[in-house]
């Protein structure tokens, strides 16, 4: 059996020499829509090593553009006009246009793009050069009118409209990042395995969904009547009334409503190779079945399911494709060793163990 459970378990394989690199399939995660509903930003996660890349994909042409990379989450935030993204990398916040032309905003992380970019630095909430709050964790969020920021501390969800004006909205241990409703009257967030909604003086904070372990940050529908999120059980839409609908039974990291329609983008299995996670709307929008090596000698691990297209390229590679399903393996140049099933289709492999 393959010794990889994607994003879940450690890999165990034959010891690699100092000259070899371990190659695993990448996974696409955390889709987020542009305000005009035409473009999705997402993060491509490469394993191992936690290399993460920021991409955008045009939902009509399916053109994909790489904008940036970092060793941790880039946490992209769209500008109000949808022409730029703020993101974090290397201890600083940057702004990039959709061609990849970027500028540095300043030190910190967790940007929130509004009329002014908010960011965190040393647990302080910075709006431009001004400190608006301290003891801030996670990612802040601007309200739709651009006047108020919601943020979290260890003990609850807060809002502020200026330096020293922070107000506790909900007291709760270790809440998730808050997300504003389209009209700016309510906030959605997670607390442990529950999804909560709170409003400023209108409706007491309450859970609208329970029993949702590993729930992602909620994303609001355009009418503000429901939220969508991924969790360990799939992708679920929950209405403010408390009714939940399971949209997809298998999911990766993140789900998001389009700001202009009822379409949901989500990270989920690629139909041709379910071991790979792609960004999907109805069908795959971006993603591939390939697991590609480098010009060096690599230890290449397939995914736990089927349909892998493993490309060894150059170097003396060790390729593991023996999972009981049919995969395609092109070992490439070099003297390569492959562990494969009898049904796997092999090309250019010198040493084969079936």
Outline the structure in words.
The chain is an all-beta fold and 354 residues long. It has a single domain (26-286), classed as Neuraminidase, CATH 2.120.10.30. Helix content is 0%, strand content 50%. The chain is built from no helices and 37 strands. The strands form 9 sheets. It has a 5-stranded parallel β-sheet, with no helix packed on it. Strands 2-3-4-5 form a 4-stranded antiparallel β-sheet, with no helix packed on it. The chain is globular. Residues 1-18 have low confidence and may be disordered.
Strand order of the largest sheet: 1-31-33-35-37
Total strand count, please? 37
Give the overall shape, derived from the CA principal axes: globular
Name of the CATH homologous superfamily: TolB, C-terminal domain
CATH class group: Mainly Beta
Q: In angstroms, what separates the terminal alpha carbons? A: 12 Å
Unreliable stretches (pLDDT < 50, length at least 5) are 1-18
User: In DSSP terms, counting alpha (H) and pi (I) runs of 4 or more, how many helices?
Assistant: 0
Give the second-level CATH assignment, the architecture: 6 Propeller
Question: How is the CATH topology named?
Answer: Neuraminidase
Please report which band the strand proportion falls in: under 5%, 5-15%, 15-25%, 25-35%, 35-45% or over 45%.
Answer: over 45%
Category by helix and strand content: mainly beta
Q: What is the count of structural domains? A: 1
Mean pLDDT: 89
**Helix proportion range:** under 10%
Summarize the main sheet.
5 strands, parallel
Q: Specify Rg, calculated over alpha carbons.
A: 22 Å
Classify the oligomer.
single chain
